From TrEMBL:
<comment type="similarity">
    <text>Belongs to the UPF0173 family.</text>
</comment>
<dbReference type="InterPro" id="IPR036866">
    <property type="entry name" value="RibonucZ/Hydroxyglut_hydro"/>
</dbReference>
<dbReference type="InterPro" id="IPR050114">
    <property type="entry name" value="UPF0173_UPF0282_UlaG_hydrolase"/>
</dbReference>
<dbReference type="Pfam" id="PF13483">
    <property type="entry name" value="Lactamase_B_3"/>
</dbReference>
<dbReference type="InterPro" id="IPR022877">
    <property type="entry name" value="UPF0173"/>
</dbReference>
<dbReference type="GO" id="GO:0016787">
    <property type="term" value="F:hydrolase activity"/>
</dbReference>
<keyword id="KW-0378">Hydrolase</keyword>
<protein>
    <recommendedName>
        <fullName>UPF0173 metal-dependent hydrolase C437_08953</fullName>
    </recommendedName>
</protein>
Amino acid sequence: MELTWHGHSTWHVTVDDTELLIDPFFDNPHTDTDPEELDPDYVLLTHGHADHIGDVDRYEGSGLVATPEIVEYCEDNFGDFDAVGGMGMNLGGTVEIDDAFVTMHRADHTNGMDTSYGTSGGMPGGFIISDTKPTQVSDEESTTFYHAGDTGLMTEMRDVIGPFLEPDAAAVPVGDHFTMGPMQAAIAVDWLDVDHAFPMHYDTFPPIEIDTQDFVNEVAGTGSDAEVHVLDGDETFEL
């Protein structure tokens, strides 16, 4: 599995021959990628805020993995998409999309769309992406990546996502103000019991500018064995 961070919360994930693009928003200081360069098989949207769906219109015709509310909003405003299941998915569900299995889990955040924030996209989410179907039987051969979306710290990371969905790596928001900051994000990493942790959702706007070393220090302070990778924009990590 290849993980490429394009700044903010935008990740390009390759599972065998399947390409996924999560939360496309290339108007951020950490990327030089032209969104037209990418041709994902599926676009995954955690929620409907503009800094997560800002470039979704570039990928009309791709598969769309999102809640039914966000699918309808995108189709009404940005064109035709091949929504998974014809209508999207929802929290707790797992879908098989080519070589990947995608499970949607809740995120503690808000989900208004448009500048008026008068349109609700339902509960925001995060995605657990694996090359095998999640079961109650632990599978040490599987590779699993958790994109936490925009979220605060929540006990589901400790009680559900970590022990039952077993991510090997997690991308967690660290910018504070709108999401977790370094301290709570570090606790999330510890609870998830992952081997690799990636900070995201920082330095895009003044309110979320941070020193990422604070996150590194906080993870170490929890006693977690996770290795923190502060990626450069457009950098790829092989999981």
